[in-house]
Structures are given as C-alpha cells and as structure tokens.
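Standup notes, structure subgroup. Blocker cleared on the S-adenosylmethionine input:
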Amino acid sequence: MLPTLAAGSVDVVVTSPPYNLDLAYNAYDDARSEADYLAWMVQVAGAVRRVMRPDASFFLNIAGSNARPWLPFELIVRLRPLFVLQNHITWIKSVSTGDDTVGHFKPVAGRRFLNHNHEHVFHLTLTGDVQLDRLAIGVPFKDKSNIARRGHAQDARCRGNTWFIPYRTVQSRSQKYHHPGTFPLDLPRWCIRLHNRQDALVLDPFAGTGTTLVAAALEGARGIGIELDAAYVQTAAARLAEELGVRC
Ligand SMILES: C[S@@+](CC[C@H](N)C(=O)[O-])C[C@H]1O[C@@H](n2cnc3c(N)ncnc32)[C@H](O)[C@@H]1O
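Run returned:
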C-alpha cells in the first residue's frame, strides 16, 4: 500500500512494526530470519521516507527481548543512511521509585535477566531540524517560583525523553482487542501532539488495532492506517466507531 500514497504527503508517522520476537499474531508470522527481517524493515523504512513531507516526523517504536537484545540497535544503525535520529525517546511501561512501583511487573523467574520495563521510540526525521512543540506535551513546574524567575510564559516545562506511559490494567484478552502487541493510546497521542501541525496527516503502516488512528482523530488530525490482517482492520474500525462515534 505504501507506494500508492503520494510522495511527500505525510506529516507524522507513528508505528510499531512486528518486532520479530515470535509473537502470536493472527495472520502474520513473527519469526523471520534476522537478516530477512532487517532487510524488510529497511525496505519499509525507505517506503515510509518517500511519503514523508520534508519536515515530517517518523516515530518508530520497537523493543528487543532477552533472546534478541541487539535487535532494535541493529535496526536503527541500518536506518542511518535514510534518516537523522533527531530524538531517542524511552517509553517506560513500569517504574520503581524508591520502594514504590507503578505499572506491571512480571514475577521473578530465573537469575540472568531483569524485568523489561521500557521500549524505544526512535524519532527519525529527514533533516534533524524538525521543529517540535515541546510544551504541547510539557508538564507543570513543581516549583512555581521558577515560572516568573526563569521568564517562562506558561506553567509548563519540557517532559524530556523518558515517557512514563503504563498499560491500563485489563481483565481479559478482549480488552486488549485480541491482539498481542498494542501500544497505549497516549503513546501516539503524545507523538502527534509533539509534532503539532495544523490538519496533520498521520500514517501508521502497521496499524494493528488502530491505536494510532484513534489517537489521530482525538488530536484533530487525519489518519491513514495500513494493516495486513483483516480481523485487526475490523477491530480498528470498531474502535474508531466506538471511541469517536463515527461510522467506518
Ligand atoms: C506491533 S503490531 C501494531 C499494533 C498497533 N500499534 C496497535 O496498537 O494496535 C504490528 C502489526 O503489523 C501487522 N503487519 C505485519 N506485516 C504487515 C504488512 N506487511 N503490512 C501491514 N501490516 C502488517 C501485524 O498484523 C500487526 O498487527
């Protein structure tokens, strides 16, 4: 589908491709050879690059596993000839501060590996000079005296490049839309808001259950989703209909 889109037409790409970690998708086989997978991802990234406007942002979410810890790094190095790595965001899914924890933690099993609490979001651009609206996802100052003292126009400071977005707690697979690898709605919402363009066109070439499309609609943007699996496309359409009250 990507070659059918107009060149230089997309403002924001937010996507999470299959990670090649043998996840149990409905139709897609997530267990290619590493060489085959990386070659495919480079090809897809080239096709994404073609449809990006010169000042577009491409947010690529990916993670490795204990068995494949090099994977995200192997991929991002291969994308170096195509993009500038403008920001590297760490999406934190669960965190401990002091003795407190927020988010989900798996039980301790084995003694080699720590819990995987984060994933990568690589912010790729064509020039490295794409202007962002950092305060659109900013956080209020803790010490309000900083606002006047440092000459800030509003009570907001940069969120930084560690984004804590936990999964919501669900009781059943249906609440995860029967899909093994969705991201939370705030992830694409923050990406779209950070890029912040009027009437933005947002693309997700691995749309899954349509999280990016719902995010685009909630942010007042237009969305294009591409998805291999007809069942997930139906889910995405149902989510859009339910969350936005529109017919898809
Ligand atoms: C990690 S999931 C994306 C999940 C999505 N972010 C969400 O929140 O629902 C990757 C998706 O890519 C889809 N996929 C695999 N190969 C594809 C292809 N060639 N074209 C389009 N989609 C594909 C899979 O079916 C899967 O739903």
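Discussed briefly. The two ends are 19 Å apart (CA to CA).
Next: hand off to the docking folks.
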